[in-house]
């Protein structure tokens, strides 16, 4: 581009001023001109301390909006020209300017969008351009102001609009922005509408408040996912997003992509219950009710206890076999006696009493905290309560991928006790999955050598060599299977 076009605004100002002065547009055509421009500086004075209390509120709002405008404009041009800005440096610069300018009764120093656009369009890119602009403004105030009194206001308006045309063209970016991110598009529209009808300062303040509101809402209703394993790897991804993802048998992996605090804990708990498919409080209450009825039948002799559970006595009527009344709202009932009866019950099989107990298809639950940036005391309490609710119905809970400060915060808030211990925390999801499968493989496994040794101690008979060799081979096979296990 020819250099003369980069300074076309300055040339327009000079030419338009000369024509307006020579033709005398004001008298002949009643055209609006700048007229008188005050020259010189006011004498510096000390701040009036008595006004501090009256202006504190307005000063605070002006400072916030002024800083937001300055940083916003700086980011626009930084993005356009490919450099970065330091918000703290901008804050210090505005503070120094206003302290110094306040002594000369100046207006609040801030960023002029139109003047910045004019300087950028004329080729100003460094701090030297700012210094030259300041010198030119000072000369205009002291000397040149008199020469620009004949400049038409329409010319000034045309220069400003011409330099802002790039920003006006951004209106055509709304459809693209809507397709990319609807929330960001709404923020843009709210800020634009507020700026047009309420002014730039109030409009930007409205935009900032609206954006903060969207952040709060997004943390209260965040993204969550159920994770599965990529076969033959230690990678876990969203089962709804990726294909050929396998959930570990009997294990649910729940990822919560938000801070766990008072505003999101209810959402956290509700979505966790939704993905596992049952309410642990309801399951506990139903099981307690069923155990109470089973205990009643055993006392009446209508059920017999065996090593593997209970058997119904067909010779007598089952008086406890009665319809189960469903409750519209589940509450914890810790007063139901359940410890008097020492008997194993298969809750997924048909029960000898007519109580509808929700089926449970998992034995372990993994909470992925990799995207939990912070947790407050309310979040700690709710997470602990949820863990205890699941574990008392036989579901082990593990927390993985956590940040160190999350663990420290939970420890400070009294998260751990005799039931909730630190060994439930694992560095990765895969570590927790491997541990769960290892525990399930060896949970009911009995060591044949120990059985033989126990038998030998009771009978005082030597252990047969052939049996010992067979048992050693069995243990070696088990050990190899354990070491070769990978999910």
TrEMBL record:
Report residue spans for region: Disordered: 309-335
What are the residue boundaries of the STAS domain, all occurrences included? Answer: 241-436
Q: How does it sit in the membrane?
A: Multi-pass membrane protein
- An example of a Pfam family matching this protein is STAS
Localisation per UniProt entry: Membrane
Ordered alphabetically, the record's keywords are: Membrane, Transmembrane, Transmembrane helix
Q: Where is the composition biased (Acidic residues)?
A: 321-335
Transmembrane intervals = 59-79, 91-113, 128-148, 155-172, 192-217
Principal subcellular localization: membrane
Source organism superkingdom: Eukaryota
Listed InterPro entries: SLC26A/SulP_dom (IPR011547), SLC26A/SulP_fam (IPR001902), STAS_dom (IPR002645), STAS_dom_sf (IPR036513)
Gene Ontology CC annotation, any one: membrane
Keyword check for Ribosomal protein: no
**Protein name, as recorded:** Pendrin-like protein
Q: Which organism is it from?
A: Callorhinchus milii (Ghost shark)
Share an example GO biological-process annotation for this protein: transmembrane transport
